[in-house]
Amino acid sequence: MPGKIDHIGLVAPRDKFDEVVAWYKKVLAPLKYDELRRYPGVVGLGADGIPDFWITARDGPLQSEIHLAFRAPDHATVDAFYNAAIEAGSTDNGKPGLRPQYHPNYYAAYVVDPLGNNFELVHHGNCSNNQ
Length: 131
Hints:
By secondary structure, this protein is α/β, with parallel strands linked by helices. The protein is built from two helices and eight strands; from the N terminus they run βαββββαβββ. Residues 4-124 form the VOC domain.
């Protein structure tokens, strides 16, 4: 089992729901993510047939900013994620590159999603601190 996170959920304002779902589908495509489940006001994205990233529509103002970090299998996937996110209209929050302040092989890119959240894709490389 590669990771310990079972699933992550985000809440989007109902009027931005379709935009947010489309954005995440595009930027997670380098990880082979796709829409796997859809219920009224809820979409489950994932790879290998298992939805582990859920987006739910809600009414009213929402005020929560979070940091999301997904693992990538290699640097090329981090680069592809960043390019897809910028093409999808994201704001750059850290171009792809090494972040040795975390550990010597920490290669990541950061963008801001349509809700204002910091979204990261990281490849840890060969590192004993692979968390």
